[in-house]
Amino acid sequence: MKRTWWATSLVYLCVILFALSVLAPVAWLIISSVSSTNDLTTTPLRWWPSTPDVSRYQLLFNFEKGSFSETFLFALRNSLSASLLATLLSLLVAIPAAYSFSRFGQGKLLYAILVTYMLPPVALVFPLYGLLVALKLLNTVWGLALVYCTILTPFCTWLLKSNLDSIPQELDEAALIDGANRWVTLWQIILPLALPALSTAALWAILLSWDEFFYALLFTSNQQAKTLTVTIADLAAGRAVDFGLICMAGVITALPPVLLGLLLQRGLLSGLTAGSVKG
Amino acid sequence: MKRYERSTQWLMLAPVLVVVLGTIGYPALRTLLLSFTNSKLTGLAKKVDWVGFNNYVRAVTNTDFQAATWRTAYFVLMSVGFEVVIGVLIALLLDQKFVGQKLARVFLIIPLALPTIVNAMMWRWIYHPDFGALNALLTQTHILSGYRSWLGEPGVAMNMIILADVWKNYPIISLVTLAALKLVPKDFFEAAQIDGATIWTRFWRITYPMILPALMVGVVLRTIDAVKVFDIIYVMTRGGPADSTKTLSFLVYQEGFSNLRSGSAAAYAYLVVLISVVLIILYVTLLRRQERTG
To answer: What's this model's pTM, rounded to 2 decimal places?
Structure first.
């Protein structure tokens, strides 16, 4: 099908507009993070810094006690450990369950688990608070990781199940005839084949928990467990006028998930669409 | 099924069941019970009384709650609506052949992977009343004569939040749609074009029915998320100005954690659950009917 020249130019015009609309806000965030406060607060606004100012990024390597960088680095550590712990924990429980759902059925139970995704966090937050107090996990990264499982476990189970469905059952049967039990089959035959799906699930799980804010806001109170999202909300709410500093914090917080997403974009999609097409 | 198979089946399900029942089932049930009491979040062990449906009755007759419900409905309809329209249009655009098509598709990942809180903070900075980029852009191009307080005007703030939400969330609709578009056989279009079908009829007769199932999944997921909206509002406006952006989740949060009335907050929360359920049933039946008649 040949396009007329004006249809082609229209396509290019729209693509340029699309690219601008996606990139401009993010570019402004990055530019703001390296502009001096003076440049950011003049009218008319200076769109490009007179001299790039990377001092805010250098702050990150200043490990003084009580400094901004200390708060921020602790938050970075907490976000990292809470996301990784939660991802590991939910994958660990979701893998055998997904296999069981895929090979033995019980579709209604899977739907029941999926429906829990609809519950807003506000419907769980009060008892979860009590639970964390009872387990002495309030204001800890472990407690957060446990709570994040409420979001990740149903999601991972569903995603892995729909991907395992595409691995032929004959493989299991062959292994079973050779005398392996189900656990060995899952571990040695199915999991290696499901690695792409597994990485998709892990990727989404990390993105979701890195993004989480509501529980972190309510269940953490200081450096010991506050995550990056809560720290940024604190910064944005504070009276601090250093807009560049807030933007720098935003850039650093956005960097890991955006890089992960870009690196693994193929997996991000293929695994998810396998899930959405099959339902 | 052999007996040992059955025991393996449940053994494999056991960890998920423990986690889901422990961290979702039990808390959800406790909240439900809580919603029938006058329990408070104060540290003192006060006597908690069973109050029946009082909290629910008080919620639905409360003007704050009603207003928050309408605001939430507005937010959900507008943001999910625009996300679907823009998401599908962008998907159709990126499905065309052009130089740099792969790169353009990669751009979709950026808003998607950007954390919600960073997105909220970024747009708050862009909308800044004194130093914001939006004000600067609009005045320097003479579209606007003076700076405006985008998040400070009750009639405007909600729409600005919706814009920020749509920017971040339409890519997921685009990606899902693009994946579905891959499955549409291209010769369908050529045949239709030869038969003289316009772009419009080609879209509604060929493309739309093919992308509908995938689109439906995207819409349901986005709706569930939009009903729960909290993070973006917390960072951008905290429900202000003049409560004009106070949605249900934010109201529940305030009722529970500022007013410390956990009993009535729990009732609010369950009403939010009810609204999500109704919305989803509505969508699914509407789309099913369209699928049959279309």
So the answer is: 0.90
Task: Report the gap between the CA of B20 and the closest CA in chain A (Å).
Answer: 7
Backbone φ and ψ of B192, nearest 5°: -65, -40
Complex ipTM more than 0.95, yes or no? no
Percent of chain A with pLDDT over 70: 93
**CA dihedral over A169, A174, A178, A184, signed as positive or negative:** negative
Q: Do B27 and A128 touch (CB under 8 A)?
A: yes
User: What are the angstrom distances between the C-alpha of B219 and each of A264, B78, B223, B279?
Assistant: 24, 13, 6, 11
When CB atoms are compared, the residue of A15, A100, A254 closest to B13 is A100
DSSP codes, chain A: -PPPHHHHHHHHHHHHHHHHHHHHHHHHHHHHHTS-HHHHT-SS--SS-SS---HHHHHTT---TTSHHHHHHHHHHHHHHHHHHHHHHHHHHHHHHHHHHHHH--HHHHHHHHHGGGS-GGGTHHHHHHHHHHTT-TTSHHHHHHHHHHHHHHHHHHHHHHHHTTS-HHHHHHHHHTT--HHHHIIIIIHHHTHHHHHHHHHHHHHHHHH--HHHHHH--STTT--HHHHHHHHHHSS---HHHHHHHHHHHHHHHHHHHHHTHHHHHHHHHHHHHH-
Q: Each residue of B192-224: pLDDT tens digit?
A: 878 877 888 888 888 888 888 888 888 888 988
pLDDT digits (tens, 9 = 90+) for A207-222: 999 999 999 999 999 8
- Interchain CB distance below 8 Å, B107 and A23: yes
